[in-house]
Amino acid sequence: MIQRVVLALLVQVVVLFAGQGYPSSYVSALLGITVSYDVILPDSYVRDAAQGKRFPVLYLLHCAGGDNTYWLQPCCGNMGTLIESVHFIAVAPYDNNRLGWWLDSPKIPNYAHSRFLVEELKPRIDSLYATLPGRLSTGVAGHSMGGFGALHNIIQHPDVYGSAFSMKGGVDPTLPLNPEWQNTNFGLFNDLGNDSADTVNWNAVNILRNIHRLKGDSVHLGLYGGQNDEYFAAENRELDTIMTGLSMPHLFFETDEFHAGVPESSMVRVLRFFDSVFVFSPSAVRQPPRAGAQAQRWAMPAGKVAWYDIRGRRLAATPAIDNRHLPIAPGIGIAVMPNGVCRVFSFAGP
Questions:
Q1: pTM of the model
Q2: How many whole angstroms separate alpha carbon 298 and alpha carbon 310?
Q3: What tens digit of pLDDT does each residue of 160-172 get?
Q4: What is the mean pLDDT of the chain?
Q5: Is domain 2-278 in CATH 3.40.50.1100, yes or no?
Q6: Contacts for 141 with CB less than 8 Å, ≥ 6 apart
Q7: Residue 296 exposure: Cα atoms within 13 Å on the Cβ side
Q8: Angle at the Cα of 324 (from 350 to 305), degrees rounded to 5?
Q9: How is the chain split into domains, by residue range?
Q10: Rounded to the nearest 10 degrees, how much is the dihedral formed by the CA atoms of 115, 147, 270, 140?
């Protein structure tokens, strides 16, 4: 009886915050501070989770000066409304105004913001919510400083994140400072140092210099730039050029935006990107990445398999099969039926 009452109260609390940020906090051992974060849930979360549905997770990293409520604001994504248009949940952490760029500082030991995301926050979210914890169902995105953080973290942890999107990100941090940055270091002097000997720290995290490390990995990448961005317009175009030259599949688009904010129209495109690349089936989340693998031929597996509809709900009966297949990641495939049912399976690789 007590358990039922507690569950009922929990459901009421979650429903209260569904469709908006569900705020929480805890003391981070890595960062040495109390960390606040918002979990952004669709209205259907409680009902669907109670029926066994599990959700991919998108981690949203704010810009310099932002916080965990950044993505809920109409000027900065309006996620409280837009979460209803997708089929995953979002988590928005706050860096306590450290300007930590979502990286692990070589200068300040407890500025371990990249490790915090993968070693503390993600396990916490996976333990408290109905998530799909595998890399193919885990993405990271951000604006400005957070856009850098999204690409930096997938470069550092392609075993954790399967997708990333940078929104008007600062992708070319250099020492001496990139002239486009208008003599503003946005806190990076504190994180990486500003002596000539610290150049190695800056080069180690520069996205233009390091994006090649993802070539051949089974990741989904996107970025967009603002034509009127006062700081980062040119370097986002350069990153697109570099990735194209490396034959790295990615989505790139430009808008007429200035640097500040993420309008709803652009956020919709970013969310559609993740909705199209996330894996919604529990059968697929444990598949490891395999660098450089390319699907050459496909074979339906023998034996018992699990079937799911396009919302990730397990089916009791086996549906009719046709012969169309869609590769979604090395080592994983989906049989796509005309009625929208999909089957996750392993393929016979090269």
A1: 0.77
A2: 21
A3: 999 999 999 999 9
A4: 81
A5: no
A6: 58, 59, 60, 61, 147, 150, 164, 165, 166, 167, 270, 274
A7: 5
A8: 75
A9: 2-278, 288-350
A10: 0
